[in-house]
Amino acid sequence: MKWRIPNFNLLLYTGTIMVALFILMVISGIFLAMHYKPDAALAFESVNTIIMHEVPYGWLWRKIHAMGSTLFFWLLYIHLLGMLYLGFYKHGKRIYWYNGMALYVCFVIIGFTGYVLPMGQMSYWAAQVITSLLAYIPGAGEDIMRLVRGDFAVSDVTLLRFYVVHIIVMPLCIIGILLFHADFFKWHATTKLSFNRKGLHVTKEPRFSKSALPPKEAKPFFSNAVLKPLLACSVFFAFFFYCVFFHPYLALDPLNMMPADPTDTPAHIYPEWYFLWMLQPLKSFFFDIGPIKGAYVGMVCLVVANAGLIFLPLLDKNPRRVPAHERPYFRWWFWTLVVCLVALTVLGKLPTTPAGLWLGMGFSTVLMGLFFILPWLSRKEYDAKS
Amino acid sequence: MDPKRRLVNYSLLALAGTGGYFTAGTLFGSLEPPKKALLEAATLIDTTTLSPNTVSFFSWLKKPIFIYKHDASVPFDPKRDVAIGAYHYTIMVGICTHLGCVPKYEEEAKEFVCPCHQGYFDLRGYALRGPVSKPLEIPPFDAQGELLLIGQAGEAYMQLMEANG
């Protein structure tokens, strides 16, 4: 009996599992949308009473949807960091990284807007805080904030537009980008259409050369492209449904079981775990240095970390595509990044203390610094002919 | 195929089929009306409060109910009427048997006229003319003394059903 499956790495199937999970989220979302009422006065009751207690299997759809969102982000981070580790953003795979980061932005938006829908305390204050962030955008911040809210504070209007973004706009964007990201539409090695003076001009040039890669040996389709992803999905969904049925409250915050009250902010407010690393820098720069406002430094850290991830292919100057453990400098860079993200996540969950703030400031500064030193570090690494 | 492998394959297929069956059950189960809808499954009517020789309107399971109360001046119809106390009653679901609109009661003509496609019913719910052929449906009811309970099939209702074959 041979139990080892050749050439099977669960890390490489995270994407496949995410597609399957996204389909499950769409199905459960459809059944939730049938009973949800996008009205500030009715939303809380429709979620916590009608769906959870009155609709047959409504509790199941809600728990699947909640647990699905949490585990989706867990997979998303593993997928993103895994591809970063393996260097899958170089040599013709750059477009996948950019697609992927567009998907990441879409999922951040769909996660945030979806979290607001139940209209509990956490939902309301999350909406209030995150939309207030927009006011810091230089120039037209206040106007952008008012456009997003559709009102002078988070209200019925905001809820309805978040609902539309959550169930129509973002799913459509995600499905569209996903088709490119999963190679459904191949833009490389296709004919290029352009216009010249004579009209439509067709060239047979590939978009970019794939000559650097050795030709791959053929593999049997059914076992490689069907059974292996199926096995990966089965393993994941076994774990997923175990969580849904036995630990559903991992994904449902008890504070959100209280109806939203615009006059009363809860003592502890925190986002879902997958946004903690982004919120901790905002809290960590807690004093001003002369004219430099701490709050603005936090914003800059947030923007730098996200923009740094988005434009990573431009920052990594080492053209060799090898996994991080074969790159003497980058491996340290990578693990420092992971430690920063984990530390900021942990600190974000803990109650605020002076020590925590100083630690958070340290990690936030390192996180910011990482993206500034990466070009220099990777060039030095390449020059060293590692 | 190797018999061992075939056994494994068919077992997996059976397992997947079972899972699919129950998944489909869950999907369709959550499309059922919530149990709260059953709160309207019974309507209690005190027949003494109805005015005789005219039609009164009620609601049962979100459907309109027409009740035509008449005295001995109008002949008794064993197929449509039920005797409660000194009066006879015709109890009908006020939904046109053509395509489900609610017929309007015309006071002068003593008829129900459906506004959607001009189907005509008489006071006892028989189809007169227009696109209708079936009489108005009789809801399950139970006469308890002078009280009328719509939504529960009682003795009188069963007799009506038998009379109609």
From TrEMBL, chain A:
<feature type="transmembrane region" description="Helical">
    <location>
        <begin position="12"/>
        <end position="34"/>
    </location>
</feature>
<feature type="transmembrane region" description="Helical">
    <location>
        <begin position="356"/>
        <end position="377"/>
    </location>
</feature>
<feature type="transmembrane region" description="Helical">
    <location>
        <begin position="71"/>
        <end position="89"/>
    </location>
</feature>
<dbReference type="InterPro" id="IPR036150">
    <property type="entry name" value="Cyt_b/b6_C_sf"/>
</dbReference>
<keyword id="KW-0349">Heme</keyword>
<dbReference type="InterPro" id="IPR005797">
    <property type="entry name" value="Cyt_b/b6_N"/>
</dbReference>
<feature type="domain" description="Cytochrome b/b6 C-terminal region profile">
    <location>
        <begin position="211"/>
        <end position="386"/>
    </location>
</feature>
<dbReference type="InterPro" id="IPR016174">
    <property type="entry name" value="Di-haem_cyt_TM"/>
</dbReference>
<keyword id="KW-0812">Transmembrane</keyword>
<feature type="domain" description="Cytochrome b/b6 N-terminal region profile">
    <location>
        <begin position="1"/>
        <end position="194"/>
    </location>
</feature>
<protein>
    <submittedName>
        <fullName>Cytochrome b N-terminal domain-containing protein</fullName>
    </submittedName>
</protein>
<feature type="transmembrane region" description="Helical">
    <location>
        <begin position="161"/>
        <end position="182"/>
    </location>
</feature>
<feature type="transmembrane region" description="Helical">
    <location>
        <begin position="229"/>
        <end position="250"/>
    </location>
</feature>
<keyword id="KW-0813">Transport</keyword>
<dbReference type="InterPro" id="IPR005798">
    <property type="entry name" value="Cyt_b/b6_C"/>
</dbReference>
<dbReference type="Pfam" id="PF00033">
    <property type="entry name" value="Cytochrome_B"/>
</dbReference>
<keyword id="KW-0408">Iron</keyword>
<keyword id="KW-0249">Electron transport</keyword>
<dbReference type="InterPro" id="IPR027387">
    <property type="entry name" value="Cytb/b6-like_sf"/>
</dbReference>
<feature type="transmembrane region" description="Helical">
    <location>
        <begin position="332"/>
        <end position="350"/>
    </location>
</feature>
<feature type="transmembrane region" description="Helical">
    <location>
        <begin position="294"/>
        <end position="312"/>
    </location>
</feature>
<keyword id="KW-1133">Transmembrane helix</keyword>
TrEMBL record, chain B:
<dbReference type="InterPro" id="IPR036922">
    <property type="entry name" value="Rieske_2Fe-2S_sf"/>
</dbReference>
<keyword id="KW-0001">2Fe-2S</keyword>
<protein>
    <submittedName>
        <fullName>Rieske 2Fe-2S domain-containing protein</fullName>
    </submittedName>
</protein>
<keyword id="KW-0479">Metal-binding</keyword>
<keyword id="KW-0411">Iron-sulfur</keyword>
<dbReference type="InterPro" id="IPR005805">
    <property type="entry name" value="Rieske_Fe-S_prot_C"/>
</dbReference>
<feature type="domain" description="Rieske">
    <location>
        <begin position="89"/>
        <end position="150"/>
    </location>
</feature>
<dbReference type="InterPro" id="IPR014349">
    <property type="entry name" value="Rieske_Fe-S_prot"/>
</dbReference>
<keyword id="KW-1133">Transmembrane helix</keyword>
<keyword id="KW-0472">Membrane</keyword>
<feature type="transmembrane region" description="Helical">
    <location>
        <begin position="7"/>
        <end position="28"/>
    </location>
</feature>
<keyword id="KW-0408">Iron</keyword>
<keyword id="KW-0812">Transmembrane</keyword>
<dbReference type="Pfam" id="PF00355">
    <property type="entry name" value="Rieske"/>
</dbReference>
<keyword id="KW-1015">Disulfide bond</keyword>
<dbReference type="InterPro" id="IPR017941">
    <property type="entry name" value="Rieske_2Fe-2S"/>
</dbReference>
